């Protein structure tokens, strides 16, 4: 998938978001080392804390499809400026991130900024082995 195709696909999927409470639509995509991509949107709930972020939704889709390592994560939203994953989602990405895993935040015009997950979540939690 080219960067332009990814931008278009994320924008298209914002319509699938279930965000009647915040009115903030978010779409995310996660890519594994083999290039397979899984998508997710935020799914809010009338019991507010039960809502799920788009990144968590995409990670669940990936893991449920046998994809347990991530090399790229894209995020796009209906807000006018680019957004970055919340703290909880940074930890969820960290769990499955391969070395140098990138998070790409897309503004509505497709402008994309990139950070590594290590930069977004320094010293993330991992159980000692
Ligand atoms: N949200 C996401 O899905 N991903 C983010 O990176 C930040 C926030 C959702 C949660 C909630 O449904 C809405 O955006 C407003 O906070």
How would you describe this protein?
The protein has 129 residues and is an alpha+beta fold. The chain has a single domain (3-120), classed as Cytidine Deaminase, domain 2 (3-Layer(aba) Sandwich). The protein has four helices and five strands, in the order αββαβαββα. It has helices at residues 3-13, 54-64, 87-96, 117-120, and strands spanning 26-31, 37-41, 70-77, 97-106, 112-116. The chain has a five-stranded mixed β-sheet, with helices on both faces. Tetrahydrodeoxyuridine binds at residues 19, 22, 24, 26, 42, 44, 51, 53-55, 75, 83, 85-86, 89.
What value does the average pLDDT take? 97
Q: Helical element count?
A: 4
Unreliable parts: none
What structural class do you assign from the helix and strand content? alpha+beta
Q: Measured on Cα atoms, how large is the radius of gyration?
A: 14 Å
CATH superfamily heading: Cytidine Deaminase, domain 2
Strand content: 25-35%
**Arrangement of strands in the largest sheet:** 2-1-3-4-5
Please indicate the count of domains.
1
What order do the helices and strands follow? HEEHEHEEH
Number of strands: 5
Largest sheet: 5 strands, mixed
Distance between the termini: 36 Å
Compose a concise summary of this entry.
By secondary structure, the chain is of the alpha+beta class. The protein has one domain (3-120): Cytidine Deaminase, domain 2 (3-Layer(aba) Sandwich), CATH 3.40.140.
